Amino acid sequence: MRLNITARHFNASDRLKEYTEKEVRRLKRYYDGILNCDVILDYEKQAQVAEIVLHVYGSKLTVREKSEDMYKSINLAVDKLERQLKKYKGKLREFEAVKARDVLAE
Fold first, then answer.
1. Model pLDDT, residue 68
2. Which pairs with CB-CB distance under 8 Å and at least 24 residues apart come from 84-92?
3. Hey, how many other C-beta atoms are within 10 angstroms of the C-beta on 33?
4. Dihedral over Cα of 68, 70, 72, 75: its sign
5. Using CB atoms within 10 A as the burial measure, which of 13, 28, 65, 80 is most buried?
């Protein structure tokens, strides 16, 4: 999985980059087919925003979370992405089960 971290309107500290990388790499536990990941960290007025875009085979999963703390925004985004990955993986399994059923029926 390739990981790109972009900080807009500020310079991200090494600690923040390491934390982001550690949290995002945790997603690999749920699905091995993650091709690329873009993380965009930004400040919007009083809110700190974390946006994560995961490229998986044939699809793109996007999450955007705001909070008063960047670390909290990253945690919320990764948690939401975990749920999306589980749902995506379930859809893949369901599709493969239907496909196998169709092959056996023929």
1. 95
2. 85/27, 85/30, 85/31, 85/54, 85/56, 85/61, 86/30, 88/31, 88/56, 88/59, 88/61, 89/30, 89/31
3. 15
4. positive
5. 65
